[in-house]
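Narrative of accomplishments. A recurring question from our advisory board has been how the design workflow behaves on a single, concrete structure rather than in aggregate. To address it, we present the structure tokens for one chain from the evaluation set, followed by the sequence designed for it. No filtering or post-editing was applied between the two.
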């Protein structure tokens, strides 16, 4: 069976059913491509979020695991250096607060780098613009950075 594009080049007008079939196929392809692009971008974002969360878990684990042993060790070290026992343990706690703040800042900086999937959002905007004006060959909808412009121009039937 010939495609509507081949029929038009042979001089025969495509039927409404053929045009609907081509439009349905193009929309299905477009949706699949958008979903694949979103998956790729979100997997990168998930990796970055996982690293940020890992830093937070590491900070918490270090804080809890080392709290008992190092608190006693530093408190006794300060006491041995001549500081009263109360103040030696207070200085130890203050040191922990500073370390925890630094780890928290590192984690927050990493998590702030997360952003929405910009390429997916832009291609969806381009697709909507193209759907509103499908005759605009070479418009914003036909210039996707992901290589779909050639397939879109090739697979669609120009409207007269």
């Amino acid at each position: 069976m010939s495609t509507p594009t081949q029929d038009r080049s042979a001089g025969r007008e495509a039927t409404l059913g053929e045009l609907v079939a081509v439009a349905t196929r193009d929309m299905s392809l477009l949706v699949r491509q958008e979903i694949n692009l979103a998956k790729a971008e979100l997997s990168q974002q998930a990796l970055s979020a996982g690293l940020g969360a890992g830093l937070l878990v590491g900070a918490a684990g270090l804080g809890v695991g080392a709290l008992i042993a190092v608190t006693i060790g530093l408190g006794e070290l300060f006491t041995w250096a001549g500081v009263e026992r109360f103040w030696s343990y207070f200085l130890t706690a203050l040191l922990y607060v500073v370390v925890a703040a630094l780890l928290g800042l590192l984690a927050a900086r990493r998590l702030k780098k997360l952003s929405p999937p910009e390429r997916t959002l832009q291609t969806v905007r381009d697709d909507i613009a193209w759907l509103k004006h499908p005759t605009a060959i070479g418009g914003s909808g036909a210039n996707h950075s992901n290589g779909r412009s050639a397939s879109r121009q090739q697979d669609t039937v120009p409207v007269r």
